[in-house]
Amino acid sequence: MTELLQQAIAQIQQLPPDQQDAIAARFFAQLQDEQKWETRFATTTAPGVGWVNAGNPTS
User: Fold this and answer.
1) Is 59 in a helix, a strand, or coil?
2) At a CB cut-off of 8 Å and minimum separation 6, what does 28 contact?
3) How far is Cα 58 from Cα 49, in angstroms, rounded to an integer?
4) Using 50, 70 and 90 to split pLDDT, how confident is the model at 39?
5) Tens digit of pLDDT for each residue in 18-33?
6) Are 29 and 21 in contact (CB under 8 A)?
7) Residues of 30-54 as b/e, b for ≥16 C-beta within 10 angstroms?
């Protein structure tokens, strides 16, 4: 775990449980969103797929 993440978690631990849960819910939502974007990006930038390689058949 990075130092920055450890510092953030240490501060979050000082909050009341309901606020900790709210932050955790936002964190999980952000992770899910990032995973969805990574999946979409990977499928649109694969060689031979989409407009990215339209002008460069060697990629």
Assistant:
1) coil
2) none
3) 12
4) confident
5) 999 999 999 999 999 9
6) no
7) eeeeeeeeeeeeeeeeeeeeeeeee
Q: What is the DSSP letter of 2?
A: -
Question: Distance (Å, rounded) from C-alpha 40 to C-alpha 29?
Answer: 17
**CA 15/CA 10 separation, integer angstroms:** 9
At 14, give phi and psi (nearest 5°): -80, -10
Spatial distance between the Cα atoms of 19 and 4, rounded to a whole number of angstroms: 20
In this structure, which amino acid lies at residue 41? F
Which among 31, 32, 39, 44 has a CA at the least distance from the CA of 5? 31
